[in-house]
Amino acid sequence: MLNALVPLVQSLRGRFPSLYHLLARMGKRFFGRRLGIYPRILANEIKAVTAVLESSEWNMAYGRGLVHERLEAEFADYVGVSHAVAVSSGGMAIQMSLRALGVAPGDEVIHQVDTCSATALAVMNAGASPVFADISPGTFMLDPRAVSASLGPSTKAIIATHMWGNPEDMASLRSIARSARVHLLEDACLALGAVVENRSAGALGDVGLFSFGCIKPIQGGEGGMIVTNDEGLARELRSMRHWGDRTIDFGVRDVTQLSWNGRMSEIVAAVVREQLRGYPQHLATLRSAVADFADHLKRFGGIRVVLGNARHIGEPVYAQLVLGLDGETPGEKASMTEALRGRGVQVWHANFELINSLSLFRTGIWRKWLAAGDLDRLHRNYTADFPQARNVFLDGGLGLGKMNFLSAGNLKNLKTSFDAILQKRP
User: Fold this and answer.
1) Dist CA 268 CA 402 (whole Å)
2) Cα separation of 311 and 288, whole Å?
3) d(CA 336, CA 345)
């Protein structure tokens, strides 16, 4: 009954927004788990935050044995690496890592064209130039051939993004990076716990990057983490998050790098640490529900579950479940999206809009900020066509939000909605 009210409440959003937001807040507070609301409490977050608030140590810059240090140790152990460095966001993790690896103005960083635009903006804020590459129609992730074709004399790094928690082709990208002698960053912001080559996502590049902000596997409201097996790099990163001050990690009050305030507060660290503790059970429940739905979907043709480069359905972590459409029926994606939303199903695109379609790149505003490098080469890249990514965004892919799998009622509604919609297909 409760789930049946969701479409009705959604219908109020445009006509009566104040009433809609009131009902939404009440629903989240009193029926959160029944409605599959996320983020949610996974362990003892409230108690942990209270302990920080009752202490005198809210900032990571002072003291030893603080919450963020315990989080770093536990996070590194979970991912299977030697070092973890807590920072203020996933975007800051990208910026700091690029600069710590020696990427400088005029250098280029390759990543897929339809990841979150935050990736390109973080590259630019680090002083470097993003270069876009197309995706594979099978995996909806970076096409290694497109990466190879995008390499240039100024390429210094490749960012491999485990989109929505689906594993990237790290073996191919690692081979390209080694041959080109460039750095490989692993964007695992949406992929905590994903399995890649029998290891955890984030453990296969020069650095692994994580976020605890919006729609991420575990959340702290904000926050991020950088992981690495390079002790010297980890020390440099810890210095850089304090405006580059080297007192704590090198024993001298000095600054050698243009840096930022990239600190994570102890309050956020307390939340994330408890989220991490409760995450294994949460992930197991989520994977089980996705497997149930994927099995249900097999009865229909023309639609498939996209798992990136995963070997089986138990390896991704499903920040959203990606579906591929055969694209043979014009307008099917739009009509299916509308019908699913009308039934209270959380649905979106399979990947993001193409970054070069955004005004910053489409209209040439980027030239104000990228003053170094081969600007003519960048212009050709930013005005290029990326047909595979364009097709996925317009016709070929759907994304089912995590909430669809976080309650029995939501999963049932998802199944019955697909039954009703797909049985009407010609």
Assistant:
1) 22
2) 16
3) 11
86: which strand partners? 225
**How far apart are the C-alpha atoms of 353 and 362, rounded to whole Å?**
13
Contact 160, 185 (CB under 8 A): yes
Q: What is the mean pLDDT of residues 28-36?
A: 62
Q: pLDDT digits over 216-259, tens only?
A: 999 999 999 999 999 999 999 999 999 989 988 888 999 998 89
Q: Write down the domain spans for the chain.
A: 1-31, 45-274
pLDDT at 20 over 70: no
Instruction: Give SS3 for 232.
Output: helix
CA 219 to chain centre: 12
- DSSP per-residue string spanning 342-390: HTT--EEESSPPPGGGSHHHHSSGGGGT--SS-HHHHHHHHT---HHHH
The answer to whether 216 and 266 have CB atoms below 8 angstroms apart is no
For 45-274, the fitting CATH number among 3.40.640.10, 3.40.50.300, 3.40.50.2000, 1.10.287.110 is: 3.40.640.10
Identify the band that residue 327 occupies on the pLDDT scale cut at 50, 70 and 90: confident
Separation of CA 365 from chain center = 26
- Residues contacting 295, CB < 8 A, separation 6+: none
**Nearest alpha-carbon partner for 166 in 199, 130, 191:** 191
- Between CA 216 and CA 177 the distance in angstroms is 27
pLDDT score of 1 more than 50: no
Q: Which residues contact 229 (CB under 8 A, 6 or more apart)?
A: 81, 82, 83, 203
| Tens digits of residue pLDDT in 56-110 | 899 988 777 899 999 999 999 999 999 999 999 999 999 999 999 999 999 999 9
What is residue 170's three-state secondary structure? helix
Buried b (16+ CB within 10 A) or exposed e, 184-204: bbbbbbbbbbbbbeeebbbbb
Helix pair angle (17-31, 5-15), 10° resolution: 150
pLDDT at residue 214 greater than cutoff 90: no
pTM above 0.85, yes or no: yes
